[in-house]
Sequence to fold (81 residues):
Amino acid sequence: MAQFLEGQAKTNEVVAALISQLTSKFDAMATHQIAQIAQQVSHLSRPQGHLPGQAETNPRGHVNAISTMRDRLEESPVMVL
Fold:
């Protein structure tokens, strides 16, 4: 009986150490994920209906257009650059 109690005490110590390690790893992971979510939310906190401050220009300098058969029957659109 004494051997069983000693073995159980050792097992309890090992389990307690493992639980402590897992808890610290979980806390670190949760802190990291909260920081990531906060960063994403800050990017989305722009007022609704507003566009970003800087417009992006077309890096190619030209525009590709696709017209359908219906466009050919009607007046063709004119693109101004």
Observations:
- The CA atoms of residues 7 and 15 lie 12 Å apart.
- Helices lie at 2-44, 69-73.
